[in-house]
Amino acid sequence: MRGGAAVSENPYVVSAFRRTLPVRLKPDTSYMRCLLAFGLAAALSGSLAAQRAGQQPPASPRAIAPYDFTGHWVSVVTEDWRWRMMTPAKGDYASVPLNADAARVADTWDPARDEAAGEQCRSYGAPAIMRVPGRLHITWQDDATLRIDTDAGSQTRLLRFGVPGSDPKSGSDPAVAAAPTWQGQSIALWESSGGGRRRSAPVLGGSLKVITTGMRPGYLRKNGVPYSADAILTEYYNGTHEDNGDAWLIVTTVVQDPRYLNGRFFTSSHFKKLPDASGWKPTPCTGR
Degrees (nearest 5) of the Cα angle 209, 158, 259? Predict the structure, then answer.
């Protein structure tokens, strides 16, 4: 000690009261290992606690929607005029991949019989409703359910996201045990476009995929072209914005039916966004 100041030649120093005595200690490696282990455990515990405290519930389908489909839309018919803007003649099922059984059913179409049986909504089921000329009103019923109302036929579709136990490939929803309906059970999911850096979150594209099952048998076209209760409907919804400010909705529909179709039946329907509800006029189903 020089000038009353303590001088240490070793990092391990023992101090007592106001005097500091240099003491040479033999390093205790087991003690250091314990300190290191304790410090590491404390750091990990703090990190895990912070993660638990910072965990947030997953964002809702509404919050992560890559495109806003809500609003009023009107169908713009630029193709298949003879099958969409008027009721085609019995036996006119061109371009639909019907098998022989389906053709026989189509050839027996009788709209008066459907009306008498209360089945006039057969051509307004989920596989056909987007082809019926008219208006759509799309809203969020809740943060996980997109709702589509049609003025033609006064139909309502509910597209449910993330239903527990549902199978996005088949559209099956064990939470809904109701009898088949015209609009069936629809399971929806946002399509990811992939891309981005490795391990980064997927970049959502502008496509909504919907799979529908559990539908009542109905018609793909007004003139009795049938689909069965075994049909599976897959749809892709895409939105665009044009340079002139117009917004468009394109719905691509794929119908598969092992009972009545030899292959997949594709259609594409276009809708233009409207500024308000002007022209919205719900009407009942008609059989002819």
Answer: 65
> Which of 142, 117, 85, 101 minimizes the C-alpha distance to 225?
101
257/127 Cα distance (integer angstroms): 11
Q: How many residues in the chain? A: 288
Alpha helices in the chain (DSSP H): 29-54, 81-84, 100-106, 111-116, 126-129
Segment 63-116, tens digit of pLDDT: 999 999 999 999 999 989 899 999 999 999 999 999 999 999 999 999 999 999
Structure tokens at 95: 């371009």
Question: Which tokens go with 20?
Answer: 């500091």
Phi, psi of 146 (to 5 degrees): -95, 130
Contact 261, 98 (CB under 8 A): yes
Contact by Cβ (8 Å): 196, 218 = no
Q: How far is CA 257 from CA 90, 186, 265, in A?
A: 21, 16, 9
Under DSSP, the state recorded for 178 is: P
